Amino acid sequence: MAQSERESYSDFRHFIISSPSEYVAHVEINRPSKLNAFTPDMWVEIGRIFAKLSRDPGVRAIILSAVGDRAFTAGLDVQAVDQQGLLGNRDQQSDAARQATKLRRQISEFQDCINQIEKCEKPVICVMNGVSIGLAIDIACCADVRICSRDTRFSVKEVDIGMAADIGTLARLPKIVSSFSWVKDVCLTARGFGAEEALAVGFVSQVLETKAKAIEAASMLASFIASKSPVAVQGTKELLNHARDNTVADSEYTKHTLKG
């Protein structure tokens, strides 16, 4: 990513976008004082960032991490989100149907923003550390590769605040890990689990001793991917995602169609 291209990403308030090596972008969630918890403005920004990176010819691979050693993200900033009615604050002037419609639209917008990580044409490597709960799992499930530090503490936390994890975890996690029983265990109980358990079920592919070492591993992997043909890499990502969600026959048809 050239200097001029890096400057075009400088207007984002809650994220730092840098280029540690040629063709590699590094996106960092930047709200460490609040454990990188997400406000509505932040999820809109992350959607814009990944849509822009997807189209950027100077980017071939992306690292997603967070500023600070305490947390990747503590999930939604419940107080900030509740003030905007996403958690179901009742408007006394509206009937139940109108409230439900408003809530559905808000959740759909939120999903669309987070989905931009998965829709991004470029491979995304997510590096997690410390507190990684709730929305952290939704975000990580959208990434192509997941790496974490040994101190990472995960939780699909939504049931503890009276919600279902409907931003993507419940749809994607069963397709990522090796045990559906384990998925139901962690989603129904909201219990915490550590890096080694995440590695054992296949949620992450590497566990490093520290966040710094995890970032280093991600940077090496991103640079290696970026050295490959971008057409081949992006086509491979598209076909793998299609294969995950479709039958073998459908995937074979798509592959031949893409070859033209």
From TrEMBL:
Pathway: Lipid metabolism; fatty acid beta-oxidation. It comes from the Eukaryota. Pfam families: ECH_1. Keywords: Fatty acid metabolism, Isomerase, Lipid metabolism. GO terms for molecular function: delta(3,5)-delta(2,4)-dienoyl-CoA isomerase activity. CDD domains: crotonase-like (cd06558). GO terms for biological process: fatty acid metabolic process. One of its GO terms (cellular component) is mitochondrion. Belongs to the enoyl-CoA hydratase/isomerase family. This is Uncharacterized protein.
